[in-house]
Every structure is written in structure tokens, then in C-alpha cells.
Design a protein that fits this description.
The chain is built from eleven helices and 14 strands. By secondary structure, the protein is of the alpha/beta class. It is elongated and about 85 Å long. Bound molecules: adenosine-5'-triphosphate and magnesium ion.
């Protein structure tokens, strides 16, 4: 059974009189990738900053059973590696110098060896001696990941790790996140990319206006809130004379016909049977309607998000 490593208990956080986070409760398990998913201004970075001990909060935050405020700052820094939303490094220094600088901050022994390992692990070998300012956005992000994990922290926090990056660099960063997770790291990331959350995260918390609206594994959220599977069937003749017969097929929740298109809703597990039964009804005499093309659309995290939040995520 997975063990919880971090627990937010009824946490509220305000900037002056404005509450950015309200009564949030959720748990993060050891060695999972946990996503905080929400639109701009939802409160994701605020939750992260509280976890790093940078903001006062109401309620409780426990890390490994210890209330955060009781954990000495140095211990917290050793335990958690943070990749902030805004890149953070010495622009004119090379990749090697930046990593060495990070290693010194963490008082590491054998810095040279660790830095070289980190350079190859984070795909930075070709850029080792280049000033960071000359690197592309994606490689700057990799430098930041390398710097923040140089001390081999147990927990890694990434605030929007792939925002603004093109698909190929996003893929590289996803692979690195998975690799770190396989090494045993617990990873917390914020994102407003639904595909990223769906693909990477073992569990996600959906946050909007400072509230955690729902949390769990993406497939569970999709199953619970994503709605039904939709089957689209194009046929060669107007199928409306058969509408009532189709409606009688078991496990069909809804049928709509527009022109020569039939749209059917059912639970995912019945889709194959439903298609087979609909085709049998269509092809039977006297109508003999032929299916030309079919498409099955499974519910996605985007559908679940719409249902939970009431609007699309918006970027
Ligand atoms: N330093 C601050 N002072 C005052 N208000 C702030 C401050 N930082 C954030 N806020 C407000 O708190 C709310 C939550 O902001 P936060 O940065 O946590 O959102 P976010 O989910 O990280 O958004 P984004 O996706 O844009 O990074 C927003 O309404 C924001 O305007
Ligand atoms: Mg943010």
C-alpha cells in the first residue's frame, strides 16, 4: 500500500485580504507523480510556495508526518528540490559553472563528479561549456532541473515544467520526469496541460479559484466525470425510420440522428457490442442500410475537467 509523504489539511492562503487558496485538503503518496492541474490564477504556485515554506498558511501541511513549520529550513531544502515557474540561473555562466554553483550551495562533496553525472543525465553534454543565456528555452529548463536536483532530493517540485516549450523538448522533459520517478523520487508538478497531467501523473488535484474541486487518478476522474463514450456512425441512407429500433438496443444511453450520421452514447465497456447490434439492425431487411464509417470517441480528462470546473481550462 502506498504511504503518504505530504498532507495538506484544510489549507487556506491569502495575499493581504485576497484568498488565493481556500480549505484545500489532499495527500501526496511516496514515489508518485502528483499533478496540480488548473487554469491561470487557480492557486497552483501558491500551494507550491506554501509547501516550500515561503508563505504563511492557515490549516496544516505535513511532510513525512512532521508539521512543515517545525521542519528546519536547511532540512527542508535538502529534502525538496524545486524547479520554479520562472527560470533561475546565472545567465552569463556556463552550464557547468551553474551546476557547480548549485552543488556548492548544497555543500556537496565530490562536486565535479556529481556535476558531470548530472550534465549527462539531463542531456546537457553538448552545452556543457556554453553560457546558459545562449541556450534555447527547453535546455534552460533542463539546466534548471539539473540544478534543482543536484543534491539528490527525495521530493521534486516542478512548477509548470513544460510551459511554452515545443513538442520535442516537452517529450524530453516528460522522459526525464518519468526517469526521476523511477529512481524513487516523489514528484509534484503543476500544469495547465491536460495531456501532460493525463500522461504523467499517477494522481491529480483539479484546482480552480483556490479550491481543490476533485482529486484522484486521471482514469478514475475520467470514469466518474468524463461522461459516456460516443459512437459516430456514417451510413449510406437516412436511418431515421430505424431510430426506435436502435433505441431499444441494450446499453444504449442516447441516440441522435442528423442526416446520414448516427450518434450513440453508451458506457465504454459496451461500445463494441453496441456497434455490432446497431449494424445488425441497420443492415436487416427491408431497409438494408450500410455503415460507411465509424468513429468511437472515449471520454478524456478534458471532458472530466469541463464537468468538474464548468468550463474549459483555457490557456
Ligand atoms: N504575490 C502575490 N500577491 C498578490 N496576489 C497574488 C500573488 N501571487 C499570486 N497572487 C494571486 O493569487 C491567485 C493564485 O495565483 P497563483 O500564482 O497561485 O496561480 P497559478 O495557478 O499558479 O496560476 P498560473 O497558471 O498563472 O501560474 C491569483 O489570483 C493571483 O493573482
Ligand atoms: Mg503558477
Amino acid at each position: 500500500m502506498s504511504e503518504k509523504i505530504i498532507e495538506f489539511q484544510d489549507v487556506s492562503i491569502s495575499y493581504g485580504t485576497h484568498y488565493a487558496v481556500r480549505n484545500c485538503s489532499f495527500e501526496i503518496n511516496e514515489n508518485e507523480i502528483f499533478g496540480l492541474l488548473g487554469p491561470n490564477g487557480a492557486g497552483k504556485s501558491t500551494l507550491i510556495r506554501a509547501l516550500l515554506g515561503q508563505l504563511d498558511y492557515e490549516g496544516n501541511i505535513f511532510i513525512m508526518g512532521e508539521e512543515l513549520t517545525r521542519i528546519p529550513r536547511e532540512e527542508l531544502n535538502d529534502l525538496i528540490g524545486v524547479i520554479p515557474q520562472e527560470p533561475c540561473f546565472l545567465r552569463d555562466f556556463t552550464v557547468y559553472e551553474n551546476l557547480k554553483f548549485a552543488g556548492k550551495l548544497y555543500r556537496l562533496p565530490n562536486i565535479e563528479e556529481i556535476v558531470e553525472d548530472s550534465i549527462s543525465k539531463f542531456l546537457l553534454s553538448n552545452y556543457r561549456d556554453k553560457p546558459v543565456k545562449f541556450l534555447s528555452g527547453g535546455y534552460k529548463r533542463l539546466v534548471n532541473i539539473a540544478m534543482s536536483t543536484i543534491h539528490d532530493p527525495h521530493i521534486i517540485v516542478m512548477d509548470e515544467p513544460t510551459v511554452g516549450l515545443d513538442a520535442s523538448v516537452r517529450n524530453k522533459i516528460w522522459e526525464i520526469i518519468k526517469k526521476l520517478n523511477k529512481e524513487g523520487k516523489t514528484i509534484i508538478l503543476t500544469t495547465h496541460y491536460l495531456d501532460e497531467a493525463s500522461l504523467l501523473c499517477d494522481r491529480i488535484a483539479i484546482i480552480n479559484n483556490g479550491y481543490v474541486l476533485s482529486y484522484g487518478p486521471p482514469p478514475e476522474l475520467i470514469e466518474k466525470y468524463g461522461g459516456n463514450t460516443r459512437i459516430f456512425l456514417n451510413v449510406d441512407k437516412d436511418p431515421s425510420p430505424l431510430l426506435n429500433s436502435i433505441k431499444k438496443i441494450p446499453n444504449i444511453i442516447e441516440v441522435k440522428i442528423s442526416g446520414k450520421l448516427i450518434e450513440i452514447e453508451c458506457k465504454s465497456k459496451y461500445a463494441a457490442h453496441v456497434i455490432r447490434d446497431v449494424v445488425l439492425v441497420l443492415e436487416a431487411p427491408p431497409h438494408r442500410i450500410k455503415p460507411l464509417h465509424s468513429e468511437v470517441r472515449e471520454p478524456t480528462l478534458s471532458d472530466a475537467f469541463m464537468k468538474i470546473v464548468g468550463s474549459e481550462i483555457g490557456l
